[in-house]
Amino acid sequence: MKKNIELLMQYMNKEIEINKEFDEEDGIDTTSEDYEPSYDSMKLKIESFINYRDIRTKQFWVSKLYNGMESRKKASLRVELDEERRRKHNAALTSLVGLCKFGEKFGLPKIYEGSLLTTNEIENHESKNYDKRKEMTDFFLKLVNDVNEVYIDREVVSISENKFITDLKQQIYKTDRDYGVEKGLTEDEGDIVFKDNSDIIL
Length: 202
Description:
Blueprint: H1 3-25, H2 40-65, H3 72-105, H4 119-124, H5 130-149, H6 159-178, E1 181-183, E2 193-194
Antiparallel strand pairs: 1-2
């Protein structure tokens, strides 16, 4: 299992530990068979990375669909998708900052070694921050790709770890299936390979 995935599970398990303590303070029986450990915050952070990958996939598909053509529908879709991409990009970058701060707060190994943008820098899109923005984006896209490719041995991982990764993999799979993706985006300025027979209607 890749180091990124091992660290991600470590972060998830730390959130479970923290939430379990809160639940016990609230009088919830955490030893019950019906008790389900919570890691919603961690899952939402990774899902924001996947959401950005999804919108980039749709942008690539529109370019492929309308290749060599100009139309009002194409122009309208481009504007709409670019606005959505910007929102989801900012959300994903903010989630990465949150993920790193979580690890720092609880003394976990660094999952990301690069420099982080501030909230204002994320929102302002200044050209001087382009390299830092790209580095952060490439990291979380690689992390999503690692999640997508990881094999989960149920004999080794916990039930929560298995569910955490499986749920994320299913979200990635749905977009790849719907858009006929053969090879997904692994870096922001990379490429996506679509199956030749893929066909959807926007």
